[in-house]
Amino acid sequence: MVKINKLEIENVKRVKAVKLEPTANGLTIIGGRNGQGKTSILDSIAWALGGNKYKPSQAHREGSVLPPNLHIVLDNGLEIRRDGKNSDLKVIDPSGNKAGQQLLNSFVEEFSINLPKFIEANNSDKAKTLLQIIGVGEQLAVLEQQENEKYNQRTTIGQIADQKKKFAAEQVYYTDAPKDLVSVSELITQQQSILAKNGENARLRSQRDQLAQLKDNLDTEIDRLIAERADIEAKLEIAEKSTLDLHDESTEQLEQNIAQVEQINLKVRANLDKDKANEDAQNYKDQYDGLTSEIEDIRLEKTKLLDNADLPLPGLSVAEGELLYNGQKWDNMSGAEQLKVSTAIVRKLNPECGFILVDKLEQFDLETLTEFGQWAETEQLQIIATRVSTGDECSIIITDGYSEEVPQAAVETPKYQF
């Protein structure tokens, strides 16, 4: 993990001459009033380490006859210089060999020297950067796509379920109607069967009457037809027995049913429609509940995925493609929280880069500043920051482009250089 041991800057932007040996872990605060050259120091470091794309548009200090001069010594022994008329880069390794920007790029994280680029990125890009760091970006993207698909599907199903339920509620239902439709043909068949049976009964009765009449006729001629009478009496006895249990059935109810069948069937159909509507509504509700369960399972899996990830800061997470810190989205975080989150993520992006440049720490009160410094020390992170202040928390004070020695009494006070 590479850090800055010391730096010397001359004639860059508003800096006339500044020497600084940042503390290895924690905060090194460059203090001073506005317009004195504090930010120029950070811009100079970014130019020296990040290449000419970070070169200030007016790098040469106005009024100076000497060109910019940058000298940075890293704790891995590398020396970086930019001096001379063209401020060309010179990188010398501990063995004395020359190197170039490619070597610096191998361990200098772009966001470390250009933190505003991360802070000003949109919420989605910040979240993607974090997911890239912890290595769950693709898995989380798949889960979020599944969640969105299930959510949209559930929304559609829920709308249909509500429509079906409302439609079912508006349907008429007849409690006195049978469950199944009444068949006219079946009623007519039953009627014809009864009529046929009754016809047979009538035929048998007629036969009985004929035999009785014949008996009467034979009675008048009994003397002449004694033998015949005996035969007829036997037949009559048999006929009487066969008609003894005969009973005619009424078709009145069937005739009424036939007359009312269409009215009955209207009620049956209405009831069937209502039952079907209720069944449809319940079916869609069951689908909705099932999708809700699937969405909850996906969300639980997302939570577990992030819980098991190596996050750069406790309380940091991603939900619905946005960065969250202690449950708050980026625009609801305080300036101090945004800076802490940004620093933690950038710190994790490239573990080989042990320093971060931070401008405008005046947004931190002293208590928050102390906590920030303690966190940086715990992370073994070197933070070189500016602050509009001339207080004891500052490591050096910049006045009119020059660095001033901090009074001894102030030096003995803790400087947030943990």
From TrEMBL:
Coiled-coil portions: 197-308
Keywords: Coiled coil
Any one of the GO BP annotations: double-strand break repair
Annotated ranges, domain Rad50/SbcC-type AAA: 6-263
KW DNA-binding (keyword) present: no
Keyword flag Coiled coil: yes
Domain of life: Bacteria
SUPFAM superfamilies tied to this protein: P-loop containing nucleoside triphosphate hydrolases
GO molecular function, one term: ATP hydrolysis activity
Protein's name in the database: AAA family ATPase
InterPro entries, per database record: P-loop_NTPase (IPR027417), Rad50/SbcC_AAA (IPR038729)
Native source organism of the sequence: Pseudolactococcus raffinolactis
